[in-house]
Amino acid sequence: MRNVTDPTNGFHDAAAALEESWRQWENFARAQQMGQIGWWRLDTRKNILAWSPENYRIFGAPLGAPQSYETFLEKVHPEDRTFVHERWLAALKGEPYDIEHRIVADGQEKWVREKASLEFDENGALLGGFGVTQDITDRKRAEIALQSSARRNELLTRVAARLLQTSDVQGVVEELCAEVMSLLDCQVFFNYLVDEESGRLRLNACAGIPQEEAREIEWLDYGHAICGVVARDGERVIACDIGSGGDKRAAHVCSYGGHAYCCHPLVVQGKLMGTLSFGTKTRPAFSDADVDLIQAVSQLMSMAMARLKMEHALLEADKRKDEFLATLAHELRNPLAPIRTGLFVLKRRGSEGPEALRVQEMMERQVDHIVRLVDDLLEVSRIRSGKIVLKTERVDLRDLIDQAVEASQQLLESNGVALNVVRSEEPLLVDGDPVRLVQVFANLLSNAAKYTPAGGSATMAARQAGNQAEVTVSDTGVGIPADMLAHVFDLFAQVNRTLGRSKGGLGIGLALVRKLMRLHGGSVEAKSEGPGKGSTFIVRLPLSPQERKDGLLRAATLDASPAHRVLIVEDDDDVVYTLSMLLREQGAAVRVVFDTERGLEAVGSFKPDVVFIDLGLAGVDGYEAARRIRAMPEGRDATIVALTRWGGDTVRDHVTKAGFDLHVTKPASMGDIERVLDFRRGVRGEG
Asked: What is the pTM of this model?
């Protein structure tokens, strides 16, 4: 049994109670520390404000330092001090005191939540109170970051929507960038765009500087200031603490009072479109989140500009397509009308006599015109697909210029345009495709003929310029407006539609010239002082090494041999008639059949040197006919020519694999016939 009379028992009980109380106090203090919660007690009668150790830590005050309401208020952030004091006065009137505000502790901004329970006497006078203070800095920063992220996402969504909907990206840049400035606490922004004609940057929009100063920096060279460096290098530049003067590139921004600057390139698919930059006068640096936002806005703006550029190009292409179709209809209708009239005259009056001869000559000219138009159309597919293949050899440009002049002389004379040719006294040797180069020079002369009014003149001159041959074709014609100089080589583009329709042309020739020059490793340039002041086209080609003299172009025309036996396998009467007539003009003996079976029989009996076969024969088609003829002893050495309605490399590949030697696009011309017979003579070694 316990001895209740033992005096030490009370001492032990008190010690145990004290130890337990101390243990509870330690637990309470640890809980405050872990929860970052301190407490305070106010006794107005003794004017004592007591703080717990954790409260001292939260406010960054020395432990045990005397405290009062005034010392507490000094710790409150200056921007929140009025708010806190007003809430305390309201609490003295019985309103709840549960607020969140900022304090400055140890030089750092922190957030706290304070809650108090006040005690009053029966007259309503304040006796004191008890309150708690919780450090909520981490939570508050997370909330602010979340709110900031939400605002950024909302801004990006709004920016994207505006940029996707607008048809004037440049017009909304200033409005959108003003929103970005507000969110990022920026005071200036600059948006420069690339000006392709001048090769410089042009200020599109800005804010935060006077208008007169903006006019002074309207144009910026690559590599100058931060925007110019970003444009030159294509990489983002972030400048911090500009005021220290360490970054010379930022001197311009520093003059506006900027402390931090971030500039992004506007790039789409590797092509620079401009720059976008923001500067702040209130902070020494941008945060990573700020930089990410500027990058996102820059990317959205780049994509929107690229979209508008693409839409503009599509609209322009669609417009040119419509103009091209209208021009094509006009060009085809013009020659068809006199042909139709000529057929009517010949039918009524017969095909004999001087008048009939003039009608036939007129119809021949119109048919030649249609053939040229169709040939131009066929070139379009080759330009689009990039399937123009050069057959390169060493040539003297002087000879090719002579051929181009000869080919273009009739058109120049008929249009009343005088031509002056300035020849180079020295050879201009280049490695190129002679046929295609003649086409280049003939197209330029044709362009001069079409766009020079009657009575005007054109000049073609060739010379050596360093390591290049330079051929210039100039005229006194309609000239080229400044805004068209960059587009004259576009497909279907024409400077003067009215004049173009009156003289013919589909806007293909100059596009083909540029394509062919690029394939040759050369270039073509257009110059003009404006409408009515003529045009100049300059072709430049790399010269061949002068020590190599072999391979010069030698044009030789061989007479057709009357001994050729030619078989035509074709079921179209008009094609048969014109083809056999052209062949007989060349002295060939011609036999005609209308299907494959009779063709095979004719090969065995007629033993032809050349066989023309229509690919679209009824029954057994032309491909199979060629294979069967090639398998016959009489057809093994024959030159077999495919008659096609379409040209191009795809057809050429098909007919070659089928055993054909050549192919001719219907209707055949005298040039086609001569090409076939020349090929036959080359195979047989005839001269």
From this structure: 0.43
